[in-house]
Amino acid sequence: MTVDLRHPLTEGMNNLMTWRNRYSKIEYPEKVVLNIFYRKYTTEFMMPELLSCFNNNVKWPDFNNGYRELKTKYGETAVNKTNGVLLELLKQTERQIGNTSYSIFQPLISAAKAGDKPKLEEIEYAYLYYFLTDESILLWAAFGGTGINKIDAIGKLSGLILETEDILNYGQIEEILGRFCAAAYLNDNYKALPPNV
Amino acid sequence: MYSEEHFKRAIGNLLSSTEDYDFFKGYFDNKNSPTTTEDLEKLFDTFKENLKEKGKWNNDAEISIKIFNEQSNEFIIQNSGSPLFITNKTKKLNDGWVLDFLTDFEKCKTEDRFAEEVRPRRYKTVTENIILLGVDGKKLSETYSKYSDFNHPLVNYTVSSTLYNSKNYSQGLPILKKAVESISSYPHYYWDSEFGIEGATWSIADLLYLAGNKAFTELDLEGEKYKFLKLLFLYLSRYIYMSKSNIKSIDFYSNRARIVKGHYMEFAGIFDLGINPDIQYISDMYLAYDVAMRNNLTSIPSFMQFMWDSLKMYRHGSHIPNNSGGYQEIEDRTWMELVHDGEIRSIMLADKLFKEFSNHNLNISKPTIDKIFQYIQSNNIDNTQKYMDKITKRRLN
């Protein structure tokens, strides 16, 4: 059984609906991708802190306290660190962030702007996928702060016991939680937005 | 996501210049304080015009107003006693094209009219007939191909109901299933769309009709039946409240009455102890008549019948007149008092069901929907030709 990601999924779907109404059809695909990377860079900037949750010390008595604390820090990092540099960072289109790069999305943006409906859905799915993955990473670190190790924390979220090398960077944990938590959850709960007209 | 802080920041941005501050101060001083989402829209339109006059209207200003509008709508919904009545236009799906679909669907209809008697009969002295309209299958297929990508519940319902009502289950049921899947769990994209809620309502109603009680009992899905009934009540209510009892609400009120009456025992449980579903029937049938009356439609016999059905239930506790004294004696309250009580109770129940729905407690999983549709499919064999032969005998033109 995977972690219940119903609240992040609701938030992600609400965001997509809001942006569709806020931006024009031409602006919208780019704004969604911009938000994917806004979140991804924020998670990467927080990675040292997230990994430090697994130093075998109990940082918070309760998982929920830890999750709330990490969410607050995530918001602060987004505003104070990512916001000012995001557009500069995106100019390095080939730069790997997690397991992807902005250059992978550029052809999708162009096609979606030109009215390619499947490509727009691909962008929207990617947004939800990375949104849920990044939320799962925060949950994973929140478990770490209760004193359990990285593998056990993955087990708590995915219901799986994995054999893996030590997790030392964003790309590694993104791949694991993306596949076993976000993709698994979306498989059962994803609803495609109707084409943007 | 809404937060008080976002809302305050949005206000701060909007009032950042002295000129803009003066505009809003002047607007509110003229006793224009917005109290509804419509008032807010008027305020933003006036502000937009004001900026245009000053030559200050640009993309940034437009985005700022949109963001403030989003936060204001969230603020209103979060602070509303009943969000069921509010449509959040900043989250509304752009589905105005459904009107084009409905026009195209009208063109699929032929001139043929057939009658089919309703069985079992509901009235001793009246025979009810369903009037069936002919539809050109080829045109319907072309119309569906044009709109199927949108996966809109109203489109899926309209096309699928045409197919399975002509006993073409193998093509109709998969489309109905798509409609049900898109609205049977929270969140979905159609909550703020009248067309979406309309499609959601009739899709669930038809699913319950096609499955019948037997499917839920045999599949051991009694709990899921309650969820479907709750969802149906919620969507019927949502349409009535979001549309502010528009003309289509006649159908929604009268069907809410029938659903509650038709599933008496289930709704006795859903409404909670001490509430008699018959009172809800009295209330909703009268409210259906009331909407018809406000739209000058009471010359249509079936709309007038709503009033008689409500009154009969009040006086006799049944559709069939008798000497029992009905709810007039049992409740010792006037007809209109019961109508009013029923209306309030329906709002309270719909609110409660919305809370359950938005807490994901009414979600129905895909495997459950698969099972129910497999059951319906295996119990309904395609029989279009034979059915056509049968109804052709009662052709009306």
Order of helices and strands of chain B: HHHHHEEHHHHHHHHHHHHH
- Based on Cα principal axes, name the global outline of chain A: globular
Please tell me how large the radius of gyration of chain B is: 24 Å
End-to-end Cα distance of chain A: 37 Å
Gap between N and C termini of chain B: 57 Å
- Please tell me the total number of domains of chain B: 3
**What portion of residues of chain A belong to β-strands?**
under 5%
Strand order of the largest sheet of chain B: 1-2
How many individual helices of chain B?
18
Kindly state the number of beta strands of chain A: 0
Helix content of chain B: 55-70%
Largest interface pair: A-B, 22 and 27 residues
Shape of chain B: globular
Succession of helices and strands of chain A? HHHHHHH
Number of domains of chain A: 1
The averaged pLDDT of chain A comes out at: 93
Write down how many β-strands of chain B occur, each being a DSSP E stretch of 2 or more residues. 2
Description:
The complex is a heterodimer of chains A (197) and B (397). Helices cover 71% and strands 0% of the residues of chain A. Chain A has 197 residues and is mainly alpha-helical. Chain A has one domain. In chain A, helix 2 (27-51) crosses helix 3 (63-91). The mean pLDDT of chain A is 93. Chain B is built from 18 helices and 2 strands. Chain B is mainly alpha-helical. Chain B is 67% helix and 4% strand. Chain B has helices at residues 4-14, 18-29, 37-53, 59-78, 98-108, 137-147, 153-165, 169-183, 194-218, 222-242, 249-262, 264-271, 277-294, 301-316, 326-331, 335-358, 366-379, 384-392; strands at 109-117, 129-135. Chain B folds into 3 domains: 4-79; 93-220 and 365-397, no CATH class; 224-364, no CATH class. In chain B, helix 7 (153-165) packs antiparallel against helix 8, helix 13 packs antiparallel against helix 14 and helix 13 packs across helix 16. A two-stranded antiparallel ribbon of chain B has the order 1-2. At the A-B interface, helix 1 of A face helix 4 of B.
